[in-house]
């Protein structure tokens, strides 16, 4: 979709890539003794190894971050707008000029699992090596063979990342890694079934679910006691996906969770947008059904985390309701400022797709706004972000692409102001969602600019002058100690 010092927000929403760039994976028989994609039936030797590598690259969602919109596969250049600056994904094609063609398998493994490039420079954990550290040697080898032998080389280097001081000091990641990188390979839990172990390997390692869904501390490391309990990702919010029946997905059926992972849509529950839409479009929809079932089985075992004070599941809020009849005739035909309330704005900009009652369209290509986690949650983040940045999600085999236009300043439909977005959001929340949640224009403005800044981002302007002052104080202290010693002598 990633962090380290930047780990927050690097998986935040960007422009989804076309899913048809990745052909569907042929049926493959899983061998339970190896947590990796085995060879397809009828394929052996080099072809089988490359096919395993291809499947692993899909499961790890490498395409989403390493392919810019309209760019060549894996050629890098995808801009990740983190609050600490823009991070550009690298070229990971086998080109020796622009990519990683000079990497040995050991170099590749070190970058993938330790976050260290072949030249010794540290990667930012926008590339989720904190999760890939779990990958087995066999899987790393298959990935290496795939990228070196089956990916088309692109000789043009990707744009270089240039973060402001002190985040441009990549050596600082050495200290962060010392504190927070658990560089241990995946070890199956003998007390769990082969299916749950497979799901854990996929969810914790390759699919790096915790990178988005686990909240972070002040240094942007994952908080282990709140694994998958939900986290802010820029203006979006990755929801709680623990086994809790109120705050998490414990009340979803196995079939509903599987359908969401494969399609991004479950009627009466929710729809994927932002970074999750990217993950489904580029990765999850192409996983084999047995692997999706394994992820579901694993999620059932994740300890439940309840949001304090939450008593009602997000998808259980609201019902159909319409104020359309009351709006007719309220304004004269010559009125210049008739779009002056949330109800009127909703009627003008939303009702044509989501219906005047909020029930959505037939077949739910345009979803209902009630019984919807985006409107019934404890945060309005995903509702506001969907209005600002739109929704785009393409699933292979579905006739129509899930689409909602954006209404921010880049809208080709109609840019809406912070006040208008807030008015619509508050109307939707009151009519169809969680009425205890409200939105201010200031909140919309913050979301429009990328969401609330983490502590490190807010502190960045003071770090250079603070460091200079600290050095001067240290020098002064050393001079004082030296003079004091000279007087004693």
Description of the structure:
Helix content is 39%, strand content 5%. With 489 residues, the protein is mainly α. Strand 7 and strand 8 form a beta hairpin. Helix 1 packs across helix 5 and helix 9 packs across helix 11. The longest helix has 34 residues.
Q: Distance between the terminal alpha carbons, to the nearest Å?
A: 64 Å
- pLDDT < 50 runs, ≥5 residues: 1-41
| Morphology call | globular
How large, in whole angstroms, is the Cα Rg? 25 Å
Instruction: Estimate what percentage of residues fall within beta strands.
Output: under 5%
- Structure class: mainly alpha
Mean pLDDT: 86
Helix content: 25-40%
Summarize the structure.
The protein is mainly alpha-helical and 489 residues long.
Write the layout of secondary structure elements.
Layout (H helix, E strand, L loop, with lengths): L44 H15 L2 H5 L12 E4 L2 E4 L16 H10 L14 H4 L4 H13 L22 H9 L13 H13 L3 H4 L17 E3 L2 E3 L15 H10 L1 E2 L3 E2 L2 H9 L6 H11 L24 H4 L14 H8 L1 H4 L18 H4 L4 H9 L1 E3 L8 E3 L13 H15 L8 H8 L6 H34 L1
Antiparallel strand pairs: 1-2, 3-4, 5-6, 7-8
Helix pairs in contact: 1-5, 3-5, 7-11, 9-11, 13-17, 17-18
Relevant terms:
489 residues; two-stranded antiparallel ribbon; 19 helices; globular; disordered N terminus
